[in-house]
Design brief:
By secondary structure, this protein is mainly alpha-helical. Helix content is about 65%, strand content about 0%. The chain has helices at about 1-10, 15-30, 35-50, 55-60, 70-75, 80-95, 105-120, 125-140, 145-165, 165-175, 185-195, 215, 220-235, 245-255, 260-275, 280-295, 300-315, 315-320, 325-335, 345-355, 355-360, 375-400. Helix 5 runs parallel beside helix 7 and helix 6 (about 80-95) packs across helix 7 (about 105-120). The protein starts with a helix and ends with a helix.
């Protein structure tokens, strides 16, 4: 109580704060029944004094306290334990990254894992821990390959645990740090740290570039975006696909389908074809149809191959997967492309008319003659307009 009153009323010298924190921590080892009161006292002390005033002595004692994590978990349900966590976590992370397998270091690593598992990291603490882990790893420049291998084995469950609970924080730190790597050694360590993560692929630095796959996909230079999409294809078709999570894959492909450069979109369509079994069919159909509506036919020489490829993918049997309703909806949304208002639209209309999704549509089932290898686009247009007219008359008469 006296320590709390002092901490609230005056700003003390760092040495005094360190001494008080060490004595309170020591008393908790002697009187474990006072765990909640003692940790509450430390929270008040650290909250009202200058950050960094308390040294490592209190940490060494607290990390040996059996009820530390369970007590923090109970306290966090109704109180802000952030000040104490802000003191403990840097020490715990540093201990976890210290090469060696001593009993004390093993115990401290177990404490860190328990904190990550049981105590919520709020107020930006999740991002702080992510930054601390990456910074600590990038500082391991003096260790042998054997030491680094042992470190990786020890850290793997810790990184995976943190990623499972605070994925957004880890993503943000990894994305922000990739442009700060100043040497090849740091890039190598960065990639080694990425290998511990489940979503490492999107942050891998591409070749001699200073940008990651994630940043390259959004690079202002179209040639870099094309290279990034090609690299994405290489990752997907290799054993590295597990390093890319499904959400990232979907966002990466769909974003590049919205690109304003046909070469980038063309590369994205190749990736999309490989992922047709993975992506949601309705989202895929919607994206492809949006591409057809967005394509600039005034520069048909550049865009037409992209648009015809989109039409071909809309007819891919994997996309429908037997969903008759989705196929019919797709057919209805393709029919307007048969309406020709300029010469540049003729080739696209011909492509749409020959697509299997249109040929299988109930309204156009008998349009093809013979084996369906050739179609008269003009006749298709006339039949289409007749069908629309009859449908409108039917809707008016039935009131639907």
């Amino acid at each position: 109580m006296i320590v709390c009153q002092l901490a609230v009323k005056v700003v003390m010298e760092a040495s005094l704060v360190d001494t008080l924190a060490a004595h309170v921590s020591k008393s908790l080892l002697r009187e474990p029944v006072l765990a909640k009161e003692g940790l509450g006292c430390l929270v008040v002390l650290l909250q009202n004094q200058k950050e960094g005033s308390a040294g490592p002595r209190a940490f060494e004692r607290l990390s040996s306290m059996p009820a530390l994590v369970s007590t923090l978990q109970v306290m966090a349900a109704s109180h802000d334990v952030g000040p104490l966590l802000r003191y403990l976590l840097p020490h715990l992370v540093h201990a976890g990254f210290t090469c060696g397998s001593g009993e004390t270091q093993t115990d401290q690593l177990a404490v860190l894992e328990s904190v990550l598992q049981s105590v919520p990291l709020t107020g930006g603490l999740d991002r702080t821990v992510a930054r601390l882990m990456l910074d600590e790893y990038l500082s391991q420049t003096e260790h042998s390959a054997e030491d680094m291998s042992a470190l990786d084995r020890r850290l793997l469950p810790l990184v995976r645990l943190f990623e499972s609970r605070y994925c957004a924080a880890l993503d943000g730190v990894l994305a922000a740090h990739v442009t700060d790597l100043s040497s090849s050694e740091q890039k190598h360590l960065y990639h080694q740290f990425l290998s511990l993560s489940m979503s490492s692929g999107k942050y891998q630095i591409m070749g001699d570039s200073d940008t990651s796959l994630l940043l390259s996909l959004k690079h202002p230079q179209p040639s870099v975006r094309v290279t990034a999409v090609d690299h994405l294809m290489d990752v997907i078709t290799s054993a590295q696909q597990q390093s890319l999570d499904e959400v990232f894959l979907k966002d990466a492909v769909m974003d590049r389908l919205k690109d304003d450069v046909p070469e980038v979109v063309s590369a994205a369509l190749k990736v999309l074809e490989v992922l047709l079994d993975v992506l949601d069919p309705e989202d895929t159909v919607s994206s492809l149809l949006s591409l057809l509506h967005r394509g600039d036919l005034s520069v048909a020489q550049r865009w037409l191959p992209v648009l015809t490829e989109a039409v071909r993918l809309l007819s891919d049997p994997r996309l429908g997967k037997g969903d008759t309703e989705l196929l019919q909806k797709t057919g209805w949304r393709l029919l307007p492309f048969l309406v020709i208002t300029s010469s540049s639209e003729l080739r696209l209309a011909s492509c749409v008319a020959r697509s299997s999704v249109v040929l299988r549509h109930p309204l156009t089932l008998n349009w093809a003659q013979g084996d369906g290898s050739t179609l008269n686009v003009f006749n298709c247009l006339v039949r289409f307009m007749q069908t629309v007219l009859l449908r409108n008359i039917y809707n008016i008469n039935t009131g639907t």
